[in-house]
Amino acid sequence: MAVVLASTFPLQAAAADPPPRSRKVQELIDEAEKAARRLDLDRARELWAQIYTLEPSTMALCQLGQFDRRLGRLEEAAEELSTCVEQMPAPANDVERRRYEVRHADLAAVRQRVAELHVSPPPGTARLLVDGKQVSTGGGRVFVAPGQHEVTAMGKQGQVAHALVKVAAGKSAHVSLAFEAPTPSAASAPVPAPVAPPPARFRPNPWIIGTGAAASAALLGAGVVLHLAGDAAESEAAAKVARMTDGSMRPSSAQFRRFHDDAHAADTRASLFRGFGSAALVAGAAVGAATVVYVVFTRGQAEIRPRAAGAEVKLVW
What we know:
Elements: H1 2-8, H2 23-37, H3 41-54, H4 58-70, H5 74-87, H6 94-111, E1 115-120, E2 125-130, E3 133-135, E4 140-144, E5 147-155, E6 160-167, E7 172-176, H7 206-245, H8 254-296, E8 302-307, E9 310-315
Parallel strand pairs: 1-7
Antiparallel strand pairs: 1-4, 2-3, 2-5, 5-6, 8-9
Helix pairs in contact: 1-2, 2-3, 3-4, 4-5, 5-6, 7-8
């Protein structure tokens, strides 16, 4: 009886909600009500998802939250019921007041069983992930299961910031992320050159030329390989999304959720591969250009030092 009431209770004031429902939506509502009366919660939830897609409304969102709560999808239910309560107008009569109180009570019950993260991403964030699932780059409230969670922010220039946070049921935690500032290379003071006779004719050092060419080729090759890997990961994500949207799976099925998670993971890999690939291509081009400058223009005093992000080339003109 509780399930039927949860499904039909919000419909009492639906006639006053503009705009009028289409015939298709009304048929779906009738079918969802029948599914709820026979306790087929998965089917009822699926139908309300279709209704919300066709005509988004507070009523449909509240229904999704109610069914997700009963199906044990607590994180989704918490988000849906929170938005439902936020959008509800102040009650004007006893019926609306009772509905208002029931929805607030349902939300309070769900929030005692989930945890809440308040994420503050760094400026310039291009992607924000919680346990590999993409959320709004603006951060804000994210409902999660109790326990430990990984929050990742990826910048537009390939920066990555991570944070691990543990939060208990019914509690909330604030997560603030920041990209690491690049470490500037130490600037060495110029050393005055000793007075000496004009140097002999300069001959380029073959070791420096070979090292520079090899490093440039390796970095360029790595950049190409990483970009190809990113394209492959993007194709994988697109294939997963196509499978999810071809109608062969129900949105409430475990297979659909697995495909959803796999698609997000592939999309994340594509972004990382392309970010690192672009960095490798830039570094390879810089090393190659420095090698050419050394051969053509320098007087012979050159030094190549390996660094974590590539190589440092010191030339004397």
